[in-house]
Design a protein that fits this description.
It contains ten helices and 14 strands. It is an alpha+beta fold. The protein folds into two domains: 185 residues, Formyl transferase, N-terminal domain (Rossmann fold), CATH 3.40.50; 103 residues, Methionyl-tRNA Fmet Formyltransferase, Chain A, domain 2, CATH 3.10.25.10. Strands 9, 10, 11, 12, 13 and 14 form a six-stranded antiparallel sheet that branches. A four-stranded mixed sheet has the order 5-6-7-8. The protein has a two-stranded parallel ribbon with strand order 1-4. Strand 12 and strand 13 form a beta hairpin. Helix 1 runs parallel beside helix 6 and helix 5 runs antiparallel to helix 8. The longest helix has 25 residues. The chain is elongated and about 65 Å long. The two termini are 42 Å apart.
Length: 305
């Protein structure tokens, strides 16, 4: 059970050694820009490989189909729906989940984004037994990976997907052979990585530049962090913490240079904006923005809302 690109390498490595009796993915989504329905990556992969596929609106409605398979194990990876207890407990070896965080930290639907936004120095993959309580099952395997300043949501999705792929067969082998050694999570150390909201996307320049930088990276490339300049929502995809301090209050364009413009942030810090996107336009480097629409916007409105 999985939906986004994150889950595809995990499905692929399982498919290389085991019989995948069924793939379960979220329904196709209508793409208004392309004016057609778009299948999620797991569904595309399953169809390409001839793996039986279902895409129920609600997974509970597929309980009968899943029960009829007499499967040994269910593996979930970023599926995106709450899986009922009767499905979790049906297979011979129950069900496991590949979760992109170092549980019990960052339980929930946005662990990769929240780890970057929170400024975590590391994250990882935890493979756990599934329970009816969100991401609370016993840990079967866990590996760490560093988060660097160069990392974004996109790069960490890829790295953690590869890490999950590298771990999953060992876990399945251990479960099958009876050598798995699950350990309970420390409930006192639980944190939650709730799904992103529209409010999470708006940059608050009252925060220090490092926090703004982490927000931009954590939302890059989807949905993207943004600020409002002269009533226009401008997304930011490239930024860096500037070395200098400023006396400007937060949210003021403190300097315009050839390849960036600098915005004052909380605690007298400064962030350099290097890549942006205007509504309905492609992403562009700051120098192109400053040579075009941005020049007039900045001239008319030095303060960012």
């Amino acid at each position: 059970m999985g939906t986004p690109e994150f889950a595809v390498p995990i499905l692929d490595i399982i498919h290389s050694r085991h019989e995948v009796a069924l793939a379960v993915s979220q329904p196709d989504q209508y793409n208004h820009r392309k004016k057609k329905a778009t299948s999620p990556p797991v569904a595309v992969y399953a169809n390409e490989k001839g793996i039986p596929l279902i895409q129920p609106e609600k997974i509970k409605d597929a309980a009968g189909i899943i029960a009829s398979l007499q499967a040994d194990l269910i593996v979930t990876a970023a599926y995106g729906q709450f899986v009922p207890k009767k499905i979790i407990e049906h297979p011979r070896f129950k069900s496991i989940n590949v979760h992109a965080s170092l549980l019990p930290r960052h339980r929930g639907g946005a662990p990769i984004q929240r780890a970057i936004i929170n400024g975590d120095a590391e994250t990882g993959v935890s493979i756990i037994y599934m329970t009816p309580k969100m991401d609370a099952g016993d840990i079967l395997a866990q590996r760490k990976i560093a988060i660097t300043d160069e990392d974004t949501q996109d790069s960490m999705f890829y790295k953690l997907s590869m890490l999950g792929r590298d771990m999953i067969l060992e876990v399945i082998d251990a479960i099958e052979s009876g050598t798995a050694t699950p350990r309970p999570q420390d409930e006192a150390a639980v944190t939650y990585a709730y799904n992103l909201t529209k409010e999470d996307e708006l940059i608050d320049f009252h925060k220090p530049a490092r926090a703004v930088f982490n927000q931009i990276r954590g939302l890059n490339s989807n949905p993207g962090a943004y600020f409002i300049l002269d009533g226009i929502n401008i997304k930011v995809y490239g930024a860096a913490v500037a070395g200098e301090k400023t006396d400007y209050p937060p949210g003021v364009i403190a300097a315009v240079e050839k390849n960036c413009f600098k915005v004052s942030c909380g605690e007298n810090t400064v962030i350099s904006i290097t890549e942006v996107q205007l509504p309905g336009k492609n992403r562009m480097m700051a120098r192109d923005f400053l040579n075009g629409k941005g020049r007039q916007l900045i001239k008319e409105a030095k303060e960012i809302k």
